[in-house]
Amino acid sequence: QVQLVESGGGLVQAGGSLRLSCAASGPNDSIYAMGWFRQAAGLEREFVAAITVSRSFVGSTSYAASLKGRFTISRDNAKNTIYLQMNSLKPEDTAVYYCAAAMVVGPISRLTQYSYWGQGTQVTVSL
Fold it and tell me: Is 91 helix (H, G, I), strand (E, B) or coil?
């Protein structure tokens, strides 16, 4: 069973930055993509960013259109870890951020294609 553990969330002022990390453990040879989603209170979980993690593929990325330019996803295959660098944070970025892993090739954005999920980490952006 693949396990995902997020870290790096917290409270930050608007305009600030945070970097989230997601470490994968367990039998992850069948994991080809990982991503970040977020869920604000009372709203549905939404796609943030994704990246291919298989060593056979270049680290292709995809982003939610509204976040591209402020958020950057990256990977460290040696550490089985992905990161989400979040800059110029806004109060509307406040949410629980979830890491997910998929056994599907490509930086996929569809929530239902992800098989494994972390517990989430809270990000709160204050004015």
Answer: helix
